[in-house]
Amino acid sequence: MLLTHKDGILRLLSGSGTTSEIAYYLELLFTDANFSAPVQRKKTEERLVMDRGVQDAHGHYAQGGDDPVMEPLPLTVSCKINDTVSGVSYLDEWFRSGKVNLHPLGTTKGDTSNVSGVSNPPFIDTTKKCYNVECVWDGSTDLGYRWHEVYFPPGEQTITEAEDGITLSLNGQVYGTIIRISGVTTGAKVKNVLA
Question: Which pLDDT does position 194 carry in this prediction?
Answer without folding.
Answer: 41
